[in-house]
């Protein structure tokens, strides 16, 4: 009866360097995307904090598909809060997948 032990294949120095460079590129791309997502979240929070104390009938403007639309604070605030929740959920989803990706790669 033979026993089989799983051994990792030996990688050449160039293969190791290539793998390292691929990880480095992945990390840079992910760090850039995380920065974008955090900036988007902070932008939503800033707008919500700014318009919340205002009179509900006050005019405000919102960019919708490249068109500037006139609305009231009362109309815009619920949409902003919903969008913030969506952005936060998306961020959590992506962060969990990033963690899974690097656990798999390790």
TrEMBL record:
GO BP terms, alphabetized: protein folding; tubulin complex assembly
The UniProt record lists the keyword Chaperone: yes
GO CC, alphabetical: cytoplasm; prefoldin complex
Lineage: superkingdom: Eukaryota
Sorted UniProt keywords: Chaperone
Recorded family membership: Belongs to the prefoldin subunit beta family.
Protein name, UniProt field: Prefoldin subunit
GO molecular function: tubulin binding; unfolded protein binding
InterPro entries reported in the protein's UniProt record: PFD2, PFD_beta-like, Prefoldin
Coiled-coil regions listed: none
């Amino acid at each position: 009866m033979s026993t089989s032990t799983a051994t990792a294949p030996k990688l050449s120095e160039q293969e190791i360097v290539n793998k390292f460079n691929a990880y480095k590129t992945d990390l840079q791309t992910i760090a850039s995307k995380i920065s974008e997502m955090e900036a988007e979240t902070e932008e939503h929070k800033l707008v919500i904090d700014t318009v919340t104390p205002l009179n509900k009938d006050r005019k405000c403007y919102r960019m919708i598909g490249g068109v500037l639309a006139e609305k009231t604070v009362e109309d815009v605030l619920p949409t902003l809060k919903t969008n913030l929740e969506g952005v936060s959920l998306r961020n959590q989803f992506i962060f969990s997948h990033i963690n899974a990706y690097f656990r798999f790669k390790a």
